[in-house]
Amino acid sequence: MDARLQEISSKGDVPALCRLLDEDPLLLDTLTVPTAENTPLHVASLLGHDDLACEILRRRPELARSRDCRGLYPLHIAAAKGRLLISKKILETDPSLSLCRDKDGRTPLHLAAANGHTALLMDLLPDDATLIGELLTERGETVLHLSVRYNQVETVKFLLENHKELVNLRDEKGMTALHLATGKRHIRMIKVLLQETSVDVNALNENGCTALDLLLQFPSDESDMEICDILLGFGGKKGLHCSPPIPQEPLHPMMPKPKKQKARKVWSRRPPRKKKTQSNRDPNWLKDSQNTIMLISTVIASTTFQSGLNPPGTGNTDDGYFIYFLVFDIIALVLSMSIILILISGLLSSNRFMTWVLTILLWTSVSSMALAFIMGANLLSKRRNVVTLLSLVLFCWLLLVIFLFSYYLVVFVMQLLKYFLNSCCSCNGDEGELV
């Protein structure tokens, strides 16, 4: 478009337009040729310059049928922006433009309804009332679908008063107006549809889902409880087969942008916990654990070796406590030396499971050394009260051993079950059909 026309259209300067056309009477004629640029009528409709639009239509009414780069007629823009006077002038010029469509199959009626310009609907509605249900977008949406999606309550009330047959019509995905209102969590819209119409509350979309299914399948905020009560109060039920809905396509450039809502607390489920993985741990944790096991095993081996060569008491081998002392001392010595031998040899040093086994062996060695100490203490003291005290200590130690053993056993069994379940899932996933 000519730069002078662009400036005049932006300012809405009618006298300047008249002077320019007096100088170059054919300037507007060049715009009647199909082009991908905006015309002055598009700009005037967008900015609401009523006088300028009327002057352009008086001089060149053919511009009412021109399209811009998005396939929009001037009437599309006027309807989307709610320009009542400009829309009427364009319709007076060519009434058939009320049914013109953009690249997405939307008529000016669709855009006016989506933006909530109820006053324009009477001028844009077709003369034959039965045709309104046949005015569908490329996605099979009616005027009511768009009004519900963008939460235009007053527009929906106007449409339902005059065209109640729209309430149960479905788009290409089988979604009714109630499906859309529930998916968008428009509580007031849901109440209008249920209370003022004969909407089918249990209508199924192409995935076999009712409005209640959409609500329960993807909960979003605390208003879901209220919506659930409303749907159940009107006989809402769950469908037999449900699958996740298909993601929606990007919005049309002339459609209103959805309002951003503050993040709300989800009432029906908690956010998943972040699992601890190997990558979250210290990369040297395995080596540090093995060094600690080596240090403790060395101390136990030295202690049990020394006590085995110099047993406590009188050295009476017939004493029962001496035999128990010797057995536990040997067990602690053998286990600790075995741990040292395994770590020195370097066998399976980088194996996590082997480190866990070494920990169990070390735990058993420590327990044996503690029991050997209790038996040795009984050898040194023959007093009854001391023996009773040591027996109580032995009993408490056994309880601790049983508790730790049970804990590690449960952890070990759970790890095995998890391993086998993951293996089964992997096997099932590999049995898919080859393409």
TrEMBL record:
Instruction: State the ANK repeat positions.
Output: 104-131, 139-162, 173-206
| Membrane topology summary | Multi-pass membrane protein
* Gene3D superfamilies noted in UniProt: Ankyrin repeat-containing domain (1.25.40.20)
Stretches assigned to the PGG domain: 284-377
Q: Does the keyword Zinc apply?
A: no
Tell me which positions the record assigns to the signal sequence: none
Amino acid composition bias (Pro residues), ranges on this chain = 244-256
> Which residue spans traverse the membrane?
321-344, 356-380, 386-410
Residue ranges annotated as compositionally biased, kind Basic residues, are 257-278
Identify the keywords attached in UniProt to this record, alphabetized: ANK repeat, Membrane, Repeat, Transmembrane, Transmembrane helix
Q: Name it.
A: PGG domain-containing protein
Looking up Pfam families in the UniProt record yields:
Ank_2 (PF12796), PGG (PF13962)
Q: Where is this region: Disordered?
A: 243-286
Gene Ontology CC terms: plasma membrane
Compartments in which it is found: Membrane
Q: Which domain of life is it from?
A: Eukaryota
